[in-house]
Structure formats: structure tokens, C-alpha cells
Write a structure and sequence with these properties.
With 186 residues, the chain is α/β, with parallel strands linked by helices. It contains five helices and eight strands, in the order βαβαβαβββαβαβ. The chain has one domain (6-185): Alpha/beta knot (3-Layer(aba) Sandwich), CATH 3.40.1280.
């Protein structure tokens, strides 16, 4: 089944944020794309140490750069670049199935040239902040807000009834194999 949305992280630095976003994409039938050099390892040992016992269930792909990511997205998929410096709010656009939500790293966000190119295409978005002293939101929080706004607009297709979900956490799954423990490299 094709993912509802794609969430792409450019050079993420903090494993906990990436793990949280991985769980987000898993829970929302999305695909996580990790682009460029990571600030951490996604091998089985590192995932176990970080408490990411579900990582092998995440639909995750690694890409060397943004060009490779763009080439791999489905035809017609739009990439929305999220930045605290963007001029449009994330609620001012209409999302479509297959869209890609792109986020930068926790320290610098997306590079200026990526934001400028997205602005020129009307695809740079920001999450509104109400306090003047706050620079940005946590990466995992920002991704969650964006994904759920897109899903809200799409009508939450395929929503699982509360009675059909596991009692707590993630449903038990088979132990990971060495092949499934890390993101696949494209």
C-alpha cells in the first residue's frame, strides 16, 4: 500500500526526535525518508539502546541528498518545506495524498537555498509561533503538527477504531532481523 504522506528529515541530529517521527509515520501509514548524513546510527544495537523496539516496523528509506529523494517520490507528489523563516502558514495550503513534508535538522533547520527555492514555488511553510522569544518548535513536535494537519484535511483515511488498537504501546511484532533493523538504503 502506498504511504499516505512522506516525511523527510534532512540531516537529523537527535535520535530521539527521529525515533518519535518514525513512530508517527508508522502510526499514520506514512514513509520516513532520512536524507544526507545522520548525526547518529540506525543499526540494531543503537536502536535497542535508544529504546526504539519498533524501529524495524518503520517504513524508512535513506537517501544521499535531496535530489535522490525528489527523484524517488511518486509522480505528482509535492514537497512542502517547513521552516520557521517561511512566509506561509502550514494551514494555508491544501495537502494531497503522497505529499512530502520536509524538515531540516534540529540545530539549523533547512538550508537557506532550500527555503528560498520552496518560497519561489509557494511550497515553504511555517508553524505559527505566538511568543516572540521562541525560535522554533522541537522537530518531532513540528512534524507531528504538520502530519496531523495534512491528515485532518484528507479526512483521516483508514482511521483505526479505538477498539481495534492494542491496549498499550505498539502491537507485538517478531524480533527484527539484521536486514530489517536499519533503514533501507536506496
Amino acid at each position: 500500500m502506498a504511504p499516505l504522506l512522506h516525511v523527510a528529515l534532512l540531516r537529523p541530529l537527535i535520535p530521539g526526535n527521529t525515533g518519535t517521527i518514525g513512530r508517527l509515520t508508522m502510526a499514520t501509514r506514512g514513509r520516513l525518508h532520512l536524507v544526507g548524513q545522520l548525526g547518529f546510527s540506525t543499526d540494531e544495537r543503537a536502536c535497542r539502546r535508544a529504546g526504539l523496539d519498533y524501529w524495524h516496523e518503520v517504513d524508512c528509506v535513506r537517501w544521499p541528498d535531496l535530489g535522490a529523494l525528489a527523484a524517488a517520490l511518486p509522480p505528482g507528489a509535492r514537497t512542502w518545506a517547513f521552516s520557521a523563516r517561511a512566509s506561509r502558514r502550514h494551514t494555508d495550503v491544501a495537502y494531497a495524498p503522497g505529499d512530502c513534508l520536509l524538515f531540516g535538522d534540529e540545530a539549523r533547520g533547512l538550508p537557506d537555498d532550500v527555503v528560498a527555492a520552496a518560497e519561489a514555488e509557494g511550497r515553504a511553510l511555517r508553524l505559527p509561533l505566538l511568543a516572540p522569544g521562541v525560535r522554533s518548535l522541537n522537530l518531532a513536535n513540528a512534524a507531528s503538527i504538520a502530519v496531523y494537519e495534512a491528515l485532518r484535511q484528507l479526512g483521516f483515511p483508514g482511521e483505526v477504531a479505538p477498539s481495534a488498537r492494542p491496549a498499550s504501546g505498539v502491537a507485538p511484532t517478531p524480533a527484527p532481523t539484521p536486514e530489517s533493523a536499519a533503514c533501507s538504503r536506496a
